[in-house]
């Protein structure tokens, strides 16, 4: 069944097998008009509560849940013998009805009279009385027929939905109101106009380059737009502008940007960021985002103008009122964020981020506290100290007073919220030289429970993505769960109320290192279920084996490094070896900031992982001009370089970069361009949370050109390898998993570019693909407007500057 903007097409041919009916504005209004809100028993009272919540702009999930027991009784024939499945037989199957939506005020005196006269009647008598009252006119008969159908659809929909699905019903299932579609972080929308049969027919509906939203182009566009109330909102460009677009045409409606000067140019996280937040009370609509210079800005969603009643003329300076003095000063102090704010129950929640890389300037830094603000006024409501203050829980675990000077430990990625439980789930990063998850109270910010995923982190294994909230069934019992993807390829699953692991996560012995002055944890928590969905250590069995010659060369390279399973510690780099520890599942491994997605229908998590991001971690004494730490990342015999994160000092307020960039990123180990390890290089895995088992796993992405065209591999039949990258997000719809490629290729099927691919979510089989001019760099989203479904994805990278592209199906007749 599909509800459109003006009409409600109702298909009855498959109704006996219905599994759910969307609750839309149109359905609610139709039921209201046709006198469904009669008084007299609990069922109608609960329906009235749904309408009241809808009119007030509140979440309708709670009243729908309360409605279910009354609905069950009604559907079973327990109230006046009214069972909708029995009643459905009164109308021929295979018919199609349309309901033309009237104005909101279109309630006639006749309908009001019908409501009053039916107040104490039985349901069957109400219908008969209404027919007599109408005089038997054809118009009234048509209205009553529609009423009967609407009743049937509403009852069947609520009766057939599982409780877990009912809890997630939202009237805006055609919209994308939050960064990850919802506060649970699912990246799911139950739309199926775009499906396996037509995905490859998608065409570009509109596109918008972000070059002019700043003083230079951006080559790292990571945003996911929002679409609410017929407007698409996104961050864009090197100035992190906010833009509002017509979601059907891409027409620019308004733009807002902030010039921050040196404060913006000194920010640790620059460029356009990953998104923004939307809030409405049914009257006002607001957009909230954080600038590179760490200021929370509140805009009128209709005009893009600051809301003067919020904070100081629409702004809250996040470097003040933070329970710390930002050093060295408010202009250049290292703290910021690139992720989208989260708004839940009128509270705006903001984390913090710092410079990327493994060469920090100092063990001392600003602290990444998390704060909640009033969405109406900007007033600070609470603060959670990720590094505890004296007297707070956990302070004594920081040895030698290190809690006083240690910094970072921020929440730099997305936050999820369970509004019903009033709980916020914080994925906290490691202290200054780069992990634990925390659950706090939404109203107060007080800690409820926590779980440390990595003890004394020596790797860049911070919790890099949003926790996923899922209502699942384990051993026949319903469980409110939270699932946390990770760089190390483990999916940690907990009861989100208590923090207890769903399956055991025992402490396992791990290797202890010997770097002078370092302390090591002798054990690490390793999940028993699900199994690791990507490689998280390096052994000789992982090395390339396309040919014996390539294998021998790979063995020679690997012999210069220390190898081992997950949590093998870094070593001091020595010229005679080892040069360091060879790792996978660390900085760029497994799942990074895009996180996973979740299907509430199948209870499956879908998660992309880099399965070949191999990185050497060696430690060298830190030159005083680089850091005050004893050791930093480096390689013996080479000059220590400050490792920069992608996009650092590339924002609109930064000095223009030199022609040749100094410093660098992580060391790539390869053989004439071939990865050092065997494929698959990148995967998408479907994991069922009821069982903790894999449903399927596939290689994602076309085989790289360097592999397909390599002279050493001529004559070999190499299956699709997938691609080595860390920033691929997935989108789940009614039937599909959708994800773009992270690298460009040139094949006989398409010119140089990347592909946006669709897979059958039940089997992982690829069912379609469309061309993109550049790699996916922001996670895709979807929505429906004017009866058409759209998919929007951010692309950029290499010589291609940032662009949002919207795809849709050809219009009828094209």
Structural commentary:
With 814 residues, this protein is α+β, with helices and mostly antiparallel strands. It starts with 9 loop residues before the first strand and ends in a 6-residue tail after the last strand. The model is unreliable at 1-41, 74-109, 114-171 and 660-666 (pLDDT under 50).
What is the number of E strands?
Answer: 41
Give the end-to-end Cα distance, rounded to a whole number of Å: 24 Å
> What characterizes the major β-sheet?
4 strands, antiparallel
Counted by DSSP, the helix tally is: 12
- Strand arrangement across the biggest beta sheet: 3-41-40-39
- Overall form: globular
Derived structural class: alpha+beta
Mean pLDDT equals 83
Approximate helicity band: 10-25%
Radius of gyration: 28 Å
Strand content: 15-25%
Low-pLDDT parts are: 1-41, 74-109, 114-171, 660-666
SSE blueprint and pairings:
Blueprint: E1 10-11, H1 25-33, H2 42-55, H3 61-75, H4 84-88, E2 96-97, H5 109-117, H6 123-133, H7 138-160, H8 163-166, E3 203-209, E4 226-228, E5 231-236, E6 241-245, E7 252-256, H9 261-265, E8 277-280, E9 285-290, E10 295-300, E11 315-317, E12 342-344, E13 347-350, E14 370-374, E15 380-384, H10 402-405, E16 416-418, E17 423-428, E18 436-441, E19 447-452, E20 468-474, E21 477-484, E22 492-495, E23 507-509, E24 523-525, H11 548-558, E25 571-572, E26 581-583, E27 596-599, E28 604-610, E29 615-621, E30 631-633, E31 670-671, E32 674-675, E33 682-688, E34 693-699, H12 705-708, E35 731-732, E36 736-740, E37 754-760, E38 766-772, E39 781-785, E40 788-797, E41 800-808
Parallel strand pairs: 25-29
Antiparallel strand pairs: 1-2, 3-41, 4-5, 5-6, 6-7, 8-9, 9-10, 10-11, 12-13, 13-14, 14-15, 16-17, 17-18, 18-19, 20-21, 21-22, 23-24, 26-29, 27-28, 28-33, 29-30, 31-32, 33-34, 35-36, 36-37, 37-38, 39-40, 40-41
Helix pairs in contact: 2-3, 3-7
